[in-house]
Task: structure prediction
Amino acid sequence: MTNPDTSKPPGQADVRTVGSTDALPVAPALGLSLDAAQMPRKSTLVTHRILLISVLAIALGALAAWAAQLLMFMINVITDLAFYGRVSDVIGPTAREGSFVLSPAGNQLGAWVILIPAIGGLLAGIMARWGSRAIQGHGIPEAMEQILTNESNIPARMTWLKPVSSAFAIGTGGPFGAEGPIISTGGALGSLLGQLLHVTANERKVLLAAGAAAGMAAVFGAPVASLVLAVELLLFELRPRSLIPVALATVTAVGIRYATYGAAPVFPMPNVAEPGGMALISFVLIGAVVGFASVWVTKAVYGVEDLFAKLPIHWMWWPAIGALIAGFIGWIEPRTLGVGYDNIDALVQGHFGLTVLLSFGALKFISWVIALGSGTSGGTLAPLFMIGGSLGAVVGIGINHWLPGIHVNMGIAALVGMAAIFAGSSRALLTAVVFAFETTRQPAALLPLLGGCTAAYLISAVMMRNTIMTEKIARRGVRVPSEYAADYLDQVTVGTACARDVFSLRADQTLAEVRRWLSEGAPEAQHQGFPVVDAGGKVCGVLTRRSLLDPQWHYTLTVGELVTRPPVMVKESHSLREAADHMVAEQVGRLVVVSQTAPHRLVGILTRGDILSAHARRLREARLKDRHIKLGKHRHPASPA
Result:
């Protein structure tokens, strides 16, 4: 038999490499040194790295704001050329000032207008074929997929492919919003920066979300809504380490927008009065109706995608076919072409009558669903707003017709419809509410918005599993988080979950004694790991049953001589999350638990099974139905006579 090779560095002895890692060998001289103990430390909410990421996020906010302005400029130039044969509306002394999106609705092309969107769709298809097929779609699902499956690594070419393809698709009359491509471009910029620097995957995710949120904030002047959108659809968490940089990025982007274009709301509407009680109920009803529509819209988009997938031609041609149909509809109703932010203005200001609302809403829905389902590059937010706003206004007109005493405001009805369809189709409830408020600055609309969007959110959650943002990647096998809850393991301390009735071995015991005791088969000898303590009761380590029975160790050796690596342990006050992370980092299955006041004194052992068992309370609270207060009279057994 060979003796342990004490010349090997800690962690490299045979007992470590040959024996099981289910237990923790620890060094005999523990003392009070926690540095040697490899113990997780209680930390602040963030580390000093947050300063670096925040500075990078601020730079990203500025970069995304300029990228957003450049994309809007490209869309306007292409629109001016394609529909009016000039660029003077965008460039030169007669160019319009401020933030605007040129509308194709005033063109005089007649039936030729049908071909213009097809040209843009063909260019988008060509760029997808020989550039990257990832440019197809509306941007947010693709960013979500990279976060969930690829550690937020977006290919560098996406920083220019996506905005250029979108500029052609939208500038030639595609019925899309510009916000999706801008969100995608900002996210690609953040990911690119994260790939150029030495950062973690989590930090790269934060940079991606910061760039994406800054892009949206720069377009709509909605910093809070953009921050909430990043939380609900990209970050899948609400932590200071991510919240702070993203918030700074959105503030920077909106600050640049204000400095460039002023601080006016993007969708100005007349001031509205606080709605009465019956009107408020009506807005909730509008939200519920639009909630059903959001489900149908989502299913329609992916139904059209499935139909295009059955076409016997290469997918590169699909965007041109979809755009051709959109062009035909645009010939019938020119207001369906392009971004259409002016249509949103008209909706919230109550300028559309019932006939226009019905025809415009229906034709915009058909045009957008077919064009987006063809796999081109464009956003969803603005089209959804027009479809939902039209439906909300129509329902509001109906309520006023049948119940005129309620006095439903048409502007609020349209606004609730706009926000509710986004809340239902994306299930980004808070984003929808805050976005509608920030883009109109109407505080009286907040309560109707909350009621209507919540109703739509409820209908959507009951009727469909995935959303318009997640269906595409869910079909590829990507599971997207749908609920964001506090980590239960972070709420439970190690002291409440560990096993305290622990049988320990003395460091001076010989292997002969221990092996004889193990062979007797006593109940306390059935464990897979045993803590080792010295004569003073201090923890020396934990040895596995396998290492104690390993024939390479001579029976005359003491238990203490087998302990070779530094201690790995936790205090009673640490959380189970910290303990679980510590187990993963150290590649062990159990931890020594020591006292909070005396870190050398053994308290218990924490195993992987103990961590799983801690979830029993969480499951019980979620599933067990019980009544704690019982009303009514209780019958008591009759007392003996």
Observations:
- The mean pLDDT is 84.
- The longest strand covers residues 539-544.
- The chain has three domains: 48-261, 277-316+330-476, 488-622.
- The domain at 48-261 is CATH 1.10.3080.10 (Clc chloride channel).
